[in-house]
Amino acid sequence: MSQAHLGSFNGTVTPGVNMLETFKKNEIRDNPNSILKYGDMVLKKFGISCPAGTVVKINGKEIPLFTGVFELGMNQIDITSLEFLETVNVNIYYMF
Predict the structure, then answer these.
(1) What's the CATH number for 6-95?
(2) DSSP string, 13-31
(3) Which residues in 50-88 belong to E strands, given as ranges?
(4) Cβ atoms of 15 and 22 closer than 8 Å
């Protein structure tokens, strides 16, 4: 039995928006019977590719992505919020 569901987002982010709400909305749209209809989304793993120097807020903590690439391994932390400080194009994969 799998431990997580895989999803992705490719596009432009809006500053100050918690991307988990966007991910959740997209997942429910794609799977109307999703468990996400009944609770909050918590990411267990994710990776980001974005322009070098982008600053991201993970669980309220600002993290500069010097190289534009960032990944957290499975179950290192529970990610409950993911925000960007500026409008940028990103590629994100995630597991929840």
Answers:
(1) 2.60.120
(2) PPTT--HHHHHHHHHHHH-
(3) 54-58, 61-65, 69-72, 82-84
(4) no
Rounded CA gap, 48 and 91, in Å?
6
Q: Is the dihedral of CA 65, 87, 83, 95 positive or negative?
A: negative
Residue 84 has, within 13 A of its CA and on its CB side, a CA count of 22
Domain ranges (residues) in the chain: 6-95
Q: Give the tens place of pLDDT for each residue, 10-67.
A: 999 999 999 999 999 999 999 998 889 998 999 999 999 999 999 999 999 999 999 9
Structure tokens at 55: 């600053």
Q: Is the pTM of this model over 0.85?
A: yes
pLDDT in tens, 8-17: 999 999 999 9
